[in-house]
Design brief:
With 442 residues, the chain is an alpha/beta fold. Helix content is 30%, strand content 26%. Bound molecules: S-adenosyl-L-homocysteine.
């Protein structure tokens, strides 16, 4: 059919042609004879053959490898973008030879310049987003079936649902929407419309009053997108009634990523229980039915006040809220020789940046050490870390050091992560931040 290849590179090219790879198809001029493939790669910013007139961003080899390994973020130093390209646009991605690599949201401000939407050459239009949303929702129907809409669920978890920069939570029949990057912010109304069409919620509240938006040059904003202010919305977590004030609350504060861990922790509760970093008492209230008494500790008065209301709403008379620094309380209790049968540690992220890892590990070690001192024989510790910069191995090593220092042998009953409606993306460690160990001190 053709001349023998002149070089190994040529041979590989011909092999790819024979396999009819998508990249080659992409390069093939639409109107020309299929066998003529000698076409120069698309020029930067030009319109490549394909599904749309989006502009092209060229990726470095390193970036292409990163995508091939499953990642979805590319940093600015690894892209060449047309100078007139605006933040928030959908772009075609090409490797340095011009081969199609995917389509992505482009950001003009954040260090993350490219967030992958698809590896296919497909139109990024309303139908595309409907399919992505439906795909996200279908997972929740499996892992958190809730036909009566009495519970809460994360419906869209950003990059992990291949909808980068979009977070949607449902609380009973209401929703909150966060558009955290330029591209989703520019399409805020589209997403609100599509959610309204797909799920018909009573209200959609915008909660874009979050600091991460600053990296994208986006302002803080909150308000109603659809429907009227629903006021405090009651929802169930297992058997426990919780309330989220979607519009007026400081933040929704429901920490839905911990929902399954809280319910699971409840199964192990007994005797005297201690819930440190309790916020609105969500762990404490799961412990209450099986524990004799629960002490719930938070440094914030407001959190404790919310917790007391929540306990009253659930008729949980055995939960006592204390406003205290958990570090001080744990030290004082262990020095006083107190004993607890169940302890939960759910602190805020101690390592917010890479540089704070060491200090964070000291923090985790300290609270876990105190907890092991306090646990009665056979007592259960539910210990959590939501610091992305500290991975599972580091966290487990730190907890082990704490156990050794306390001279306790410790069984691992469960190694858990975020709830199933917060999926992680294989190849994107950034989506896998929450660690929850359920341990028993022997
Ligand atoms: N366990 C909660 C979420 C905790 S969020 C739940 O499942 O819903 C972390 C909480 O830790 C916040 O409420 C914050 O006020 C509290 N906190 C932060 N530092 C603290 C400290 N040193 N002592 C006690 N509470 C603290």
């Amino acid at each position: 059919m053709s001349d023998p290849p002149r070089s190994p590179k040529e041979a590989r090219r011909l092999e790819r042609l024979k396999q009819g790879s998508r990249a080659v198809r992409d390069l093939r001029p639409r109107a020309s004879a299929p066998r003529r493939v000698e076409r120069p790669p698309p020029v930067l910013g030009s319109v490549a053959a394909g599904t749309s007139d989006e502009r092209t961003v060229v990726l470095s080899k390193r970036a292409v490898d990163r995508l091939a390994q499953g990642h979805v973020w590319i940093y600015r130093s690894d892209v060449a973008a047309p100078s007139t390209l605006g933040g928030g646009e959908v772009v075609r991605l090409a490797d340095e030879r011009g081969w199609f690599t995917g389509k992505a949201f482009y950001g003009s401000t954040s260090q993350i310049a490219v967030r992958l939407l698809t590896r296919e050459d497909e139109p990024i239009d309303e139908e595309f987003f409907v399919r992505r949303l439906a795909q996200a929702i279908s997972l929740r129907e499996i892992v958190r079936p809730d036909p009566e809409r009495r519970g809460a669920a994360r419906l869209v978890h950003g990059e992990a649902d291949l909808l980068p920069g979009l977070i949607v939570d449902r609380y009973a029949d209401c929703m909150t929407l966060q558009t955290l990057i330029e591209a989703t912010d520019a399409r805020r109304d589209l997403f609100a419309d599509l959610l309204q069409r797909l799920l018909a919620p009573r209200a959609i509240v915008e909660r874009n009053d979050v600091r991460v938006r600053a990296h994208e040059g986006l302002e803080q904003r909150k308000g109603m997108l659809r429907g009227g202010d629903p006021g405090p919305v009651e929802f169930l977590e297992g058997e426990v009634k919780l309330v989220a004030d979607l519009l007026a609350g400081q933040k929704t504060g429901a920490f839905l990523d911990q929902a399954e861990n809280r319910i699971e922790a409840g199964r192990y509760a007994r005797g005297l229980a201690l819930d440190c970093f309790t916020y609105g008492g969500a762990f404490a209230l799961q412990l209450a039915p099986r524990a004799a008494q629960v002490i719930a500790v938070d440094i914030s008065d407001q959190a404790a006040a919310q917790g007391r209301e929540a306990a009253a709403r659930n008729g949980a008379h055995n939960v006592e809220f204390k406003v205290a620094n958990a570090f001080d309380l744990l030290r004082a209790e262990s020095e006083a020789g107190e004993r607890y049968d169940t302890i939960v540690l759910d602190p805020p992220a101690f390592a917010k940046t890479k540089t704070s890892i060491d200090a964070a590990l000291r923090g985790y070690k300290e609270i876990n050490l105190r907890a092991f001192h306090l646990l009665s024989p056979g007592g259960v510790l539910v210990t959590n870390s939501c610091s992305f910069h500290i991975d599972e191995a580091m966290f487990e090593r730190t907890v082990l050091q704490a156990a050794s220092d306390a001279r306790r042998s410790v069984q691992v009953i469960e190694r858990r992560g975020a709830a199933k409606d917060h999926p992680t993306l294989l190849g994107v460690p950034e989506t896998r931040y929450l660690k929850c160990l359920i341990l028993r001190a022997l």
